[in-house]
Design brief:
Elements: E1 4-13, E2 16-26, E3 31-35, H1 42-50, E4 57-62, E5 65-66, E6 77-80, H2 92-102, H3 107-120, H4 136-149, E7 154-158, H5 166-183, E8 186-191, H6 194-200, E9 203-208, E10 211-216, H7 218-223, H8 228-233, E11 240-248, E12 251-254, E13 257-260, E14 268-273, E15 278-294, E16 298-305, E17 308-315, E18 325-330, E19 336-338, E20 345-346
Parallel strand pairs: 3-8, 3-9, 6-7, 7-8
Antiparallel strand pairs: 1-2, 1-4, 4-5, 9-10, 11-12, 11-14, 12-13, 14-19, 15-16, 15-18, 16-17, 19-20
Helix pairs in contact: 2-3, 2-4, 3-4
This protein binds adenosine-5'-triphosphate.
C-alpha cells in the first residue's frame, strides 16, 4: 500500500505563502496530476513530498509511515524532472542501474531490473550508449526507466515532457500512461499543460495561488467545475460566463432570456456554459459575431454578448459571418451556475 496523505501542509517563503493548508490523499496506484498556472505552488508541493523542501507546517504520510522528517532517500520515492538529470559519463545501462547499485542490489537483480525497464521503455538497443549519444526523447526514456527500476512505492514527476518537441511529447505521453499503469506505482505528476493532465490523470488536482481548488476525475473537472477558476482554466477555449439576475424563485435573466436555474437567494449570480454546449436556434442568447474561425471539424465563433466576449464552437456547416447576430441556445443540462461572492458552483 502506497497511499500518499498530505495533511494540513503549508509553506511560507519569508512573508510569502506559497502553499495554504493543503489536505489531499493520493490513493494507492493512483495517477494524480497537479495542474495549475506558473507559480501556483505545484513544484513546491511535489518537493515537500519528495523531501527536497521542508513544509512550514503539516505532515506527509506514505503508506503507514510518516515521512516528512525523513531524508529523501528513505521515503521510498523516485523522481523524474524536466531536465532529466541523466549522467553524461555513464551509459544508458549504468544510468538505469545507478540507484540499484547505490542500494547494493546483487548484480543478477540489477540485470533483471535494467532489462525489464529498458524493454518497458523500448530502449533495449540503446543501453550501451552514453547519454550524449542519445536524443532528448531517448534520454527522457532513460530517466523514466531509472525511476521505475527502483521499484519505488511512489514516483514523482515534474514536467517530465516539457523539453520534448510536440510530436515526441504526444508519443511519450501515451507511452508513459501505459508504462505507469503497468508498473502500478502511485504517481504524482506536475504539469501546466491541461491536455497532458486530462489525458494522463486518474484524478486532476487543480491548484490556484497555493490552494487545491478541485481534485476530481478529468471528465468531472471539465463538466462540473467546482469553482469558476476551474471552468476558466480548463478547456480551450474556456467556459463562457454571463451575469444572471434573479427573476423569481429558480428563474434567472441571462442576456435578456429567462432560464431555469438554482433556487439561490442572491439577486445576481453567474451563468456559465462551455463553447461546444450551444447550438444556433430560436430564442437563445443573442450574440453579435466578431470573428469566425473555420477549424475543420467545427467552426469557432467569437461574439459579443452585452459587451462581453463569448465563444461558441459550432457545426462547420453553419453559415455565419462577422457582423451577423446569431441566437445561441445552450444545452440545458450543460449550464452551470456560480456564486459571484465565493466563486463556488451553485447546484
Ligand atoms: P512553475 O510551473 O512555474 O514551475 P509552480 O506552480 O511549480 O510554477 P512553485 O515553483 O511551486 O510554482 O512556486 C510557488 C511560488 O513560490 C512562486 O511564487 C515562487 O516564486 C515561490 N517560491 C518558490 N521557491 C521559492 C524560494 N526558494 N524562495 C522564495 N519563493 C519561492
Amino acid at each position: 500500500m502506497a497511499e500518499i496523505r498530505i495533511k494540513d501542509v503549508a509553506k511560507q517563503f519569508g512573508a510569502f505563502t506559497a502553499l495554504h493548508s493543503i489536505d489531499m490523499t493520493v490513493r494507492d496506484q493512483e495517477f494524480l496530476v497537479l495542474l495549475g498556472a506558473s507559480g501556483c505552488g505545484k513544484t513546491t508541493l511535489l518537493r515537500i513530498v519528495a523531501g527536497l523542501e521542508t513544509a512550514s507546517q503539516g505532515e506527509v504520510w506514505i503508506g503507514e509511515r510518516r515521512v516528512d522528517r525523513l531524508p529523501p532517500r528513505d521515503r521510498g520515492i523516485s523522481m523524474v524532472f524536466q531536465n532529466y538529470a541523466v549522467f553524461p559519463h555513464l551509459t544508458a545501462y549504468e544510468n538505469i542501474a545507478f540507484g540499484l547499485r547505490m542500494a547494493k542490489l546483487p548484480q543478477a537483480e540489477v540485470e533483471r531490473r535494467v532489462t525489464r525497464t529498458a524493454e518497458l521503455m523500448h530502449i533495449e538497443q540503446l543501453l550501451k550508449r552514453y547519454s550524449g549519444q542519445l536524443s532528448g526523447g531517448q534520454r527522457q526514456r532513460v530517466a523514466v526507466a531509472r525511476a521505475i527500476a527502483m521499484e519505488p512505492d511512489v514516483i514523482l514527476m515534474d514536467e517530465p515532457l516539457s523539453n520534448l518537441d510536440a510530436l515526441l511529447r504526444l508519443e511519450m505521453r501515451a507511452e508513459l500512461k501505459g508504462v505507469l499503469a503497468e508498473s502500478k506505482t502511485t504517481t504524482i505528476y506536475v504539469t501546466h499543460d491541461q491536455v497532458e493532465a486530462m489525458s494522463l490523470a486518474d484524478r486532476i488536482a487543480i491548484m490556484n495561488a497555493g490552494r487545491i481548488v478541485q481534485a476530481d476525475r478529468p471528465v468531472e473537472v471539465y463538466r462540473n467545475p467546482a469553482a469558476r477558476f476551474v471552468g476558466s482554466f480548463i478547456g480551450n477555449p474556456p467556459m463562457n460566463f454571463l451575469a444572471a439576475e434573479r427573476v423569481d424563485r429558480g428563474r434567472w435573466r441571462v442576456a435578456g432570456q429567462v432560464l431555469p436555474g438554482p433556487n439561490a437567494t442572491q439577486d445576481r449570480i453567474e451563468f456559465a456554459i462551455r463553447p461546444e454546449d450551444m447550438a444556433v436556434g430560436e430564442g437563445g442568447i443573442p450574440a453579435n459575431v466578431r470573428v469566425v474561425e473555420p477549424l475543420g471539424p467545427h467552426t469557432l465563433v467569437t461574439a459579443d454578448v452585452g459587451g462581453q466576449l463569448f465563444r461558441a464552437v459550432l457545426d462547420s456547416d453553419i453559415a455565419v459571418a462577422p457582423g451577423d447576430t446569431v441566437s445561441l441556445v445552450p444545452q440545458p443540462e450543460r449550464i452551470r451556475w456560480f456564486d459571484p461572492e465565493t466563486s463556488r458552483a451553485l447546484q
